[in-house]
Structure formats: C-alpha cells, structure tokens
Amino acid sequence: MLGNGVVGILSESSNKWERRVPLTPSHCARLLHSGREKTGIARIIVQPSTKRIHHDSLYEDVGCHISDDLSECGLILGIKQPKLDMILPNRAYAFFSHTHKAQKENMPLLDKILAERVSLYDYELIVGDNGKRLLAFGKYAGRAGMIDFLRGLGQRYLSLGYSTPFLSLGASYMYPSLAAAKAAVITVGEEIASQGLPSGICPVVFVFTGSGNVSVGAQEIFKLLPHVFVEPSRLPELFGKGRNVTSKRVFQVYGCIVTSRDMVSHKDPSKTFDKADYYAHPEHYSPIFHEKIAPYASVIVNCMYWERRFPRLLSTKQIQELNKKGCPLVGISDITCDIGGSVEFVNQTTSIDSPFFRYEPLTDSYHNDMDGNGIICSAVDILPTQFAKEASQHFGDILSQFVGSLASTADFTKLPAHLTRACIVHGGTLTTLYEYIPRMRKSDTLDISDNHTNGHINNKKKYSVLVSLSGHLFDQFLINEALDIIEAAGGSFHLVKCQVGQSTDAMSYSELEVSIYN
User: CB within 8 A of 140, min separation 6: which ones?
Assistant: First the structure.
C-alpha cells in the first residue's frame, strides 16, 4: 500500500472553523496532469466536505475523485490531527500531529498510529537546509490576529466612550480574501488620516514583541494605517509632559518593535545585554519591560517565543501595579496563544466566535464582556484558518514540491533527508530519531514517591541530582544523546519540566531528576 502513488485528502474534523486544505484544486491539477512518471502521483481521492474552502466540485473538475473511502490511498494528507477512527492501517499519513515532544494530549493518537502500523510524517518537522520550517502559517496568524484585534479595539474604545474608525472593521473571516481584509484596513487608515483619532485616547501605541514571521505578519497589517515607528528608548517622548494635554485630534498611530534586549537587563550594572549570555543564563537578568515599555503601550501584540526559565514579559503583579498608576494599556493580542506564559494573566484561549475576554487587574477577575474596567485580551489558537484560501495556497505551493516523493516511496530512508527526518513512525515503529518519545512518556508517568517507602527514602537510591538541559533538544534530536548518556551510566530519570521551542531558531529546555541505583 505504501508508495502506490494514490493520495487521499482528509475532511478536517478537529474544529468547526478549520477550512484549510493541504492541496488546493490547482495544486492537484498540476500534480495529476503532469503525469505519474514526473510527479509519482497516480490518483487523488478527496473526502467530501461542505465547509472546506474549496468546494468538492472544484476538485472533481481537475480529475480528483470524491469519496469518503480512502482505502486505496497509500498516502493520506490533512492539516490538523484526524479523529482516531479515521486512521487506516498500513498507510502513510502527513499532518501536524503535535506528538514529537511527547505531548500528553496527543499520545492516544500516537498509540493508534503505532497499533495500526502506520507511517507518520509531521509537517512541523520538515525543515530546509537553513534550519527553517518549510511548512508554517506564522504570517497568516499575525495578519489575522492583528485584524481581529483592531476590530476588538474599536469595540473597546466605544465602551470607553470613544468612537473610532476601528469600529467599522470586521473579523478576518468576514472577508472573502486577505486582499479584501487589507482593503478594509486601508479604509480605516484613510479615515484616521483625514478625520483623526480622539485626543483622549492618544497617543495610540502598538508594541510588537519578537521579529519572527508572526510579528512580521502583524506589522504588515499595522503598516496599512498611517503610522510612525518609534525606538523603545523614545517612547516617553510621545507623552510629553502628560497625556491629553491638547484637544486636537491625532492623525496617526505609533508602532514600537521590542526584542529581548528591551525586555531585560543584566543584574550586574557593569554588564550590558548579551543575547547568547541571556539564553545561556537567564537567571542573571531582571525584567524591565514593565518599567521601560508597558507604561507607554496602548496595545501589546505578543508574537515572541518564551520559556519558563526566562522572566515573563508581563506578570500579574506587574500589571496590577501599572494599573494603579494609570497605565494606558487597553488590550493585549497574544497571537502566540501562550497560555499562562510570557503574559501571565492571559490564562485562557479564546475562539474565533468569541475572541476576547476582559481582565480587571485591581480585582484580579475575568469577564466575558468589554464594558467594564480592565484590559481586553485575545488568544485565539487557530488564527490562520480565517484566511483559509491564501493560507492553503501558500501551504500547497510548498507541499506539492515533495508530496510525490512521499506518495511514491515505500521506504522512508530513500526519501530526501528533510523528509526522512520528518518521519516519526514508519510501519508502526518509532524511527531512530524519535525513540526518546516513549522514554519521556515513561518518565512522565513516574511519581517521585516511587523512591520512597512509608515516607522514607528508598535506601537503594545512591543519589539524585537535577539536570538542566538547554539547546536544540528536539529539532536536532540532542535529547536522544542526553538520555543515552544517563541510561548508559546505569541511571534513570524523571522528567520534571519540558519547555519546547516553537521554531527551529528557538532552543528548548528540560529539567530531569537523575537517579543512580546500586
């Protein structure tokens, strides 16, 4: 069955909003019409779907077959994880599985894949020669997240008594295309440029954290407004001798891009910020974002990667203190959707249906409306699907370059290196690079009390030490080497913490309790 050249496309079932596809009808047309000898693809079977961004008839028109039955397919493609009963035995699957870091919530899926002798390729693990992920939706998350927040900002300002052009914006999914959504933002910008914003809310300052694709996408939308970018050190200048010192309307908004050097400072006053040192020894640094940046921000657009070993961008205590001092912060768009992470009080995800909650710092309370005191927060974890057409086109442009290899090759070791490395399971067996997964799962089920008997430490335990690992543990598979060293020395380990990078640029961090027995 593997390598037979027949490709199946799943009907997405993970979320009602998921309308993206791995291959569009135009991609399928090129793959089919180029011939099997060139592409390695003989047939494409598409499961019917009434919510997919591209109608079934468009796939039929280019020669695809529409059927719920994918039993002929050697390779089956999706975007998100399929339901367990959709996993057929002895096939190859490709989708975002979220299993290679031993994520608890997806271990039943991995168990099903192993039991059915399936081969699993994970899009997240397909990286190019430069170490960058080839298949990702970061810019679309940034674009959709920014548009959605501008819409919410208009609603929030209205509840505070101010009418603004932002109020006319719709959510990203309400536009038929990204171009139409951008045109709507441009119209808002034209109104700001001609009519201005109420002085009572100005200066309106958007702070963007990070410099990756998510931040680039968010800034792309922001730049459609009349704007000026300000260096972090010059933010205080926007406020002069105080806010609201004039009745004149303001005809632009302000942007500020901050990176880690603007968020922390070395505890030793004689030393300056050093990125390499910060990543190696974050304990040597103190947070300063709440002092240097947050007091001047109207909106924080959070696009940065964060691990718990680093200082938070903004803690609950910090925002409570800022609120008492009259901080102008109106809202936070946490596009990273890092719950309880760099922005501590963003403690829940939100949905496309209901993208905001309101946090009231003085009472430390959460509300599902925009009408009271506090800060509006957004943390939607499925933003790119709001631009399903463009996101799918972008994704398929890349996937179609190597889907033929996946469809026509039965032995994963004969695939190009970037695809071989992305194979987590082959024929129901974990591949060598991912043999750490069950070891981490086993560790995760251990209770530290296993080393105790009736409240006393088991005397077989010679010693225990906490080992911290930091680096490219998963994308370069260094976690395997670390566990090999521990076990070769006769040790066992208990996984205490595991913070994993969200990109190949970011490092991961793990803490292991290592024990050696007599």
Answer: 217, 383, 384, 387, 390, 391, 394
CA dist 34 and 178 (Å) reads 30
Whole-angstrom CA distances from 447 to 444, 493, 495 are 8, 11, 10
Paired with 355 in beta bridges are none
Distance CA 151, CA 146 (A): 9
Q: How far is the C-alpha of 326 from the C-alpha of 320, rounded, in Å?
A: 10
For 93, the enclosing helix (H) or strand (E) is: strand 92-95
Amino acid letter at 503? Answer: S
Nearest to 307 by CA among 493, 134, 511: 511
Model pLDDT, residue 41: 96
- Cβ proximity of 306 and 279 under 8 Å: no
Listed in order, strand segments (DSSP E) in 277-364 are 285-287, 299-302, 331-334, 356-360
Domains in the chain: ranges and CATH: 6-125+402-433 (3.40.50.720), 138-386 (3.40.50.720), 441-517 (3.30.70.2690)
Instruction: Note the pLDDT tens digit of each residue in 98-122.
Output: 998 888 889 999 999 999 999 999 9
For residue 92, what are the β-bridge partners?
Answer: 75, 119
* Alpha carbon of residue 210 to chain centroid: 13
Q: What are phi and psi of 506, to 5 degrees?
A: -90, 145
| Alpha carbon distance 95, 75 (integer Å) | 11
CA–CA separation, 266 and 268 (whole Å): 5
Task: Indicate the pairing of strand 253-258 with strand 285-287.
Answer: unpaired
Hey, what are 331's tokens? 């809202």
For the chain, what percent of residues have pLDDT higher than 90?
74
152 alpha-carbon distance from chain centroid: 21
The answer to whether 342 and 318 have CB atoms below 8 angstroms apart is no
Residue listed under structure tokens 């440029």: 193
Distance between CA atoms of residues 125 and 98, nearest Å: 10
